[in-house]
Backbone:
């Protein structure tokens, strides 16, 4: 079936009205949950093949989080979908006002390769919960996982309802030529611009989950031992191939030496003295990205690591010290296991540094001073983040997750996912037992006086 024919099939399915009843949506979420459970081992194996993820990491960071989001949505969907009564201005008396959530229709979810299960299925959960049909385009860079997802979803859903399109740039381009009612894209900034440009042709709304260089600020009052441990976890998880990974560190100069020492010790503690022999340590997705990362390692500034295996596309957790704004590693999002450390003289200097650059997807602050926390959270713009931890802010269904500026637009998770894939209709129901004449022509002074009394 051609992509054009697939989109038409989905539009016919949506227009049949089958996805509208709440019972149908809940059944779809039940089917999706059962599919994930049935295919869990295959998904784990595919994540190992594509990214070298361990069984534990595959569940903790992908399958488990997806199931958690899915169960949260099932529990709360009835309340999310209810119409909501709102206040009616006295000028509209007698009437009542309320909002109604409706699905957009046929949606497109384009997912990345770094978390190919989580970042494919979480948007799908929102799309199905809101009553949409959905075409899914997984990344060609994670072919094993893409193939399992296609088998899994094909067994559970009609293609008119949920369909997976595999392939590369040609398929991406063909999909973006079609008219969708909503597009949800997770990936890089450059492709995000293309998605938005193509969507503009049809005036299709979009959510863009992008990335950028997410800073980690550490001041002199921080618990450095704990900061090092949580920083190493967040940075080197999935070999640094995480959109919200700490991209670089801004640390007050007076504690830099101690922090570097603790980071080096923590790397050994978590990954062993020989990380390349650690079966739970993953790999870079492909040779292109592997070679790009090697070009970012300045051997003159190595504080730890700098070792790699060209056969397995693995790079030891690496730390660079004495980095400046002009170094190659600071010119692009790293998306790999390389951590640049820059020293600053004060928190003011750190804040100034962050403000000079595009708004990041995440920001992490380690401090024990409330004034420093208030200053950073109140003056720096970023998608989301943590105080005294890294990356865990995305692992909750109670808060939205998304970027700002060049790091993206729109958000999802929990209620936000439902709202993202829904259009909120505003309705005023006017009663017929009274009709105030003041709004009708011909106008006169009495009517004007009444209008001024009610409309203010």
Residues:
């Amino acid at each position: 079936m051609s992509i054009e024919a697939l989109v038409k099939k989905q539009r016919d399915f949506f227009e049949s009205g089958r996805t509208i009843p709440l019972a149908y949506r809940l059944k779809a979420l039940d089917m999706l949950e059962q599919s994930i459970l049935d295919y869990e081992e295959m998904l784990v194996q595919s994540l190992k093949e594509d990214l070298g993820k361990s069984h534990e990491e595959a569940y903790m960071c992908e399958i488990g989080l997806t199931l958690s989001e899915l169960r949260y949505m099932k529990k709360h969907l009835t309340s999310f979908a209810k119409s909501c009564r709102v206040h009616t201005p006295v000028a509209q008396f007698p009437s009542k006002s309320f909002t109604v959530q409706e699905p957009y229709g046929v949606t497109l979810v384009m997912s990345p390769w770094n978390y190919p299960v989580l970042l494919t299925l979480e948007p799908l959960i929102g799309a199905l919960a809101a009553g949409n049909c959905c075409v899914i385009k997984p990344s060609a860079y994670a072919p094993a996982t893409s193939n399992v997802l296609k088998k899994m979803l094909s067994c559970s859903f009609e293609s008119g309802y949920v369909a997976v399109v595999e392939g590369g740039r040609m398929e991406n381009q063909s999909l973006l030529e079609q008219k969708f009612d909503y597009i949800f894209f997770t990936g890089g900034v450059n492709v995000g611009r293309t998605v938005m440009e193509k969507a503009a042709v049809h005036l299709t709304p979009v959510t863009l989950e992008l990335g950028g260089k997410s800073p980690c600020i550490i001041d002199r009052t921080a618990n450095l031992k704990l900061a090092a441990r949580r920083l190493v976890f967040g940075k080197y998880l999935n070999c640094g191939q995480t959109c919200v990974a700490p991209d670089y560190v801004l640390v007050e100069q007076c504690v830099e030496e101690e922090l570097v020492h603790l980071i080096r010790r923590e790397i050994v503690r978590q990954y062993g003295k020989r990380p390349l022999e650690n079966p739970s340590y993953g790999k870079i997705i492909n040779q292109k990205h592997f070679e790009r990362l090697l070009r970012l390692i300045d051997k003159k500034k190595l504080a730890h690591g700098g070792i790699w295996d060209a056969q397995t596309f693995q790079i030891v957790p690496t730390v660079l010290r004495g980095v400046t704004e002009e170094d190659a590693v600071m010119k692009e999002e790293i998306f790999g296991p390389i951590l640049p450390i820059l020293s600053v003289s004060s928190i003011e200097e750190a804040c100034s540094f962050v403000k000079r650059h595009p708004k990041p997807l995440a920001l992490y602050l380690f401090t024990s001073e409330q004034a420093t926390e208030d200053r950073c959270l109140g003056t720096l713009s970023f998608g989301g983040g943590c105080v005294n931890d890294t990356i865990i802010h995305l692992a909750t269904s109670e808060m939205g997750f998304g970027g700002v500026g060049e790091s993206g637009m729109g958000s999802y998770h929990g209620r936000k996912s439902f709202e993202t894939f829904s259009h909120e209709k505003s309705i005023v129901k006017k009663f017929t037992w009274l009709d105030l004449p003041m709004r009708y022509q011909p106008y006169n002074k009495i009517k004007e006086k009444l209008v001024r009394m009610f409309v203010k």
Remarks:
- The chain is about 40% helix and 20% strand.
- The two ends are 58 Å apart (CA to CA).
